[in-house]
Amino acid sequence: MPIPCSRQCGKKAILKRPKTGHALCKECFFYAFESEIHNTITQGKLFKPGDKVAIGASGGKDSTVLAYVLKTLNERHQYGIDLFLLSIDEGITGYRDDSLKTVQQNKDDYGLPLKILSYKELYGWTMDEIVAEIGKKNNCTFCGVFRRQALDRGAAFLGVDCIATGHNADDIAETVLMNILRGDIARLQRCTSIITAGADCIRRCKPLKYAYEKEIVMYAYFKQLVYFSTECVFAPNAYRGHARTYLKDLERIRPSSILDIIHSGETLQVKEGIKLPERRNCSRCGFVSSQEICKACIMLEGLNRGLPKLGIGKSTKVKRALESIAKDKCNDKCNGKCKDNEQIDEKDLEF
Amino acid sequence: MCTLNLSEYDTTTSFPADTIEAHDAVPFCKKCGNQEAQVFLKNKNEYCKRCFLIILRHKFRATLSKSKSVHTNDSILVAHSGKANSTLLLHLITTDMNESISKKLQFSFKVLYIDDGIVKGRSIKERESIQSALAKEAENLQLTMYILPLSNCVTDSICEEMQLANAPLMNMTSENTIVQEIFDNLENDTAKDELLQQLRLKLLVSAARKLNCNKIFIADASVDLAVKVLGNVSTGRGSQLPFNVAFSDTRYKDVTLLRPLRDFTRDDITGYLECYNLHPIFNCDKYNSSFPASIRNVTRNFVYKLDSEFHSTVPTIYRTSEKLAAKRMECENSNTKIDDNVNSDNNICVLCELTSDSSYLSKEQPSVAQAKLFSKLVSTVADTSLNMATNSLNIHELSSNEQIKSINASKEEKHQCQNDIHKSILKQSIIEKYLCYGCRLIFLNSKQIDNILPNFISNAIKKKSQIAHLEKEISDFLL
Ligand SMILES: [Zn+2]
Ligand SMILES: [Zn+2]
Ligand SMILES: [Zn+2]
Ligand SMILES: [Zn+2]
Ligand SMILES: [Zn+2]
C-alpha cells in the first residue's frame, strides 16, 4: 500500500526525510527543504537588500545545492541580493580541472556570474610554483595556510559584503565534536554561529546550517543538479575519521543527533574568566590572525625574498621570532590535517 | 596535602626468580627506584605495587582535599554499581577508614546499590545472585549497604523502606511492574538508557535524604567523564555539562554529588583491582550488553577506541568540559532579569532538575529548537497560509495554532478517538513545557505517551501548573 504524503497533499510519498522521518512526495520535499533554508535566512538576517553575496563554489554537492537554492529563493522572495559564484584555483596542475568544469556548468545552468580567482592573483604564486620553490615536503604548510584565507582575500578583492558557504548540519556537528576532542574551546564557541565576522572582515554565513547532508544529496538527486563528487583521494586523518564514523553511528541510532549536537553547541559558551587566544587583524593584510603578522603574510614574504623555507629570513630578531612561531604552528597544524583541508575543500572548517 | 606513611605497607612483595630471568632487563619502579616494576601503565610509567597504590591513594585524597568539599561529620552515600569503579572506590574508602586516626578520612558513609535488573531484562535468579554477592561484599568490607529496587521510583513514597543488603532476599515477584511498562513504551535504547540514568539519579538523591546523607560519591573515572561529555553533547545536553561531569554537582540544595575518582585512568583502576585481587560483581562485557544501541554505549565504544590510540584524548575531553558553561542569555533590559529570577523555578526540568536550556536561547536568533519545530511544521501541514512568503514567523505560536487546528480537525473527522488525540497532544505540550531539551527527547516518539510519565513527574507538573495559576491570580499585586 502506498504511503500518503504527510503534508496531506493527496499524492503518495516517495521518500522519508532523513531529518524528521516524515514521508513526503517530491514537491512537498522541495517545499520543506527550501522553506527551511528560507526560514534560516530570514530569521538569522543573513542578507540585507543590496548585498553582494559570493557563494564559495567548489563544484561539490553542498555548494552546488546552495547556489541553486539561493538563486531560487532570491527570485521567489526578492531578497534583493547580488549573487555570484566564487571559486579559488590553487594552480595545481590537473587538480581543479573537474571541479572547475562543474562550477562552469553551474554558472551556465543557473545563470549566475562566476569569478575564478587564482592563487596567482591572490598571492602572486601558484601552488605549482610554490612546490617548485620549497619541494613537495613542506607544501602542505602553505596550502593549509593559504587556503584558509583564500576566500576572504578573494571576497575582499571583489568588494563582497558576504560569503555564503555550504557548511551543512553534519559539518557543523562534526566540528563541534572535533573541537571538543582537540580541546579548542575558542573554536567550539564560534563554530555553531550562523554568521561569523572579524573586526572589519567580510561576513561569512551558513544558510545550510540546519540542512542534513543526506537531504542535500536527495535534493540534488531529485532536482538533477550536476555536481562534482568530491570523493577525495586522501583519507581523512585517523582522528577526524573516527569522529565522522561516530557521528554516522549516532545519526543511525537517533537521526536527530546531528541537530542535538548543534543545540549543545548553541547553548554552551566558554566559562567566565577563562582566557581565550586573542583574535586580531594582521597588520599587513588586515585579515584575522592570531599574530601581529599572519602566517600567510610571513610565508609570502619568505617566498618573495627567495627564502621560502626560512619565511622572512634573518634580518631582525623580531622577525625571526615571528617566523619561528609561525613555522611551529604550521607544522603541528599541518600534521596530516592538510589532507583534511583537501577533502573538506572550500569549506575549510576553520571558522 | 596527602602525606602517607610508607612503612605501613608490606614491602616484601617479591617476584619469582624465573620471571626476572625471562625478561633480561626488568625495569625498576619509577618512584622508589629500588623495587622492580610490577605495574606498567600506558603512559609508560612503571611502578612497584606498593608505590603504585600509594600514588592512587594520594590521588584520591588530593582530589578531595583540593576541593575542600568533604568535611568532618559529613555523612556520605556511596553509589555502588557493582562495576569496577565503585568496587575500587568502596575498597579505597574502607581501607582508608582502617588507618590510624590521624590519617583517617573524617566522614561516615553508607552504600547504596540500585537494582535496575527489572528494566535490564535480568532474571529474578540473576538478581538474587547479585544481591547475595553484594551481601558478601558488604560483609567483607564491613559496610552498611542498602539495596533499592528501581521500581521504587514510580511509587509515591520513594524509598519507603530501605533494605539492607544482608537482609533476607526481598520478594521480587510481587514487585511493581509499572516501571517496566514505562520502559517498554519508549522508542529505543537511547531513550531507555537515558531515562534509566535519570531515574537512578532521582533514587540516589531520595535515598540520600532518607538516610540523612548530605553528600553522594559517584565513582566516575576520567574515561567515564569523557564518555559523559560526548554523550551529553550528543543528546542535546551540552549546557548541562557543568553539572553532569563536574567534580561537584550542586543542582540539589540539600545533597551534593561528588566524583572523587575523576582523575583515575582505566589503567589505574585495573591495576588497583589486580593488586588487591578484587573481582567486581559485573565485568565489562555483561555491562555493555544492557542497552547496546544507545548513544551512551556507542559513545563509550568511541571513547575507549580513541583512548587506546591517543592517550591524551580522555584528559583533553574532560578538561575541555571544565572550561564550559551554559550560555548566558543577553538581556536587553534589566526587567527581563528580574523576571527570570521570579520564574527561575519554572525553568527547572522536572526530570533532571536542571535549568531548561530553552532559557539560554534568544527567541529572535535562529536555533536548533526552532529549526526542529519549523521542520515538523513544513513536513506535516498542508496549509498554504504559512507559505514561504511569511516573513519572521512566530513558530511557537504557529505550531500551537496548528495543534489546536489539528485537534479541531480530528474532532470533526472521528468522534470516537477525539479524546485520545486530545490527550496525547496535551501530553505532548506538557512534555515540551516541563522538560528540558534533552529529557524531551526521551519521550518524544514513545509509543504510548499517556501512561508513560512516571508518577513523580506528573505530580511535579501538577504542582508547577498550580503555582503558575496562583501566580497569575495575584500578578496584579506583585511589585
Ligand atoms: Zn506532498
Ligand atoms: Zn599539511
Ligand atoms: Zn597577513
Ligand atoms: Zn616503588
Ligand atoms: Zn531535563
Any overview of this molecule?
The complex is a heterodimer of chains A (351) and B (479). Helices cover 49% and strands 11% of the residues of chain A. A six-stranded mixed sheet of chain A has the order 5-4-3-6-8-7, with helices on both faces. Chain A has a two-stranded antiparallel ribbon with strand order 1-2. A two-stranded antiparallel sheet of chain A has the order 10-11. The longest helix of chain A has 19 residues, at 139-157. Chain A has 351 residues and is α/β, with parallel strands linked by helices. Helix content of chain B is 48%, strand content 8%. Chain B has a seven-stranded mixed sheet, with helices on both faces. In chain B, strands 1-2 form a two-stranded antiparallel ribbon. In chain B, helix 3 (84-97) packs across helix 9, helix 7 (222-234) crosses helix 12 (313-322) and helix 14 (368-380) runs parallel beside helix 15. The longest helix of chain B is centred in the middle third of the chain and has 22 residues, at 189-210. The interface between A and B is large, with 61 and 66 residues. The site of one zinc ion has 8 residues of chain B, from helix 17. Chain B: GO terms for molecular function: nucleotidyltransferase activity; sulfurtransferase activity; tRNA binding.
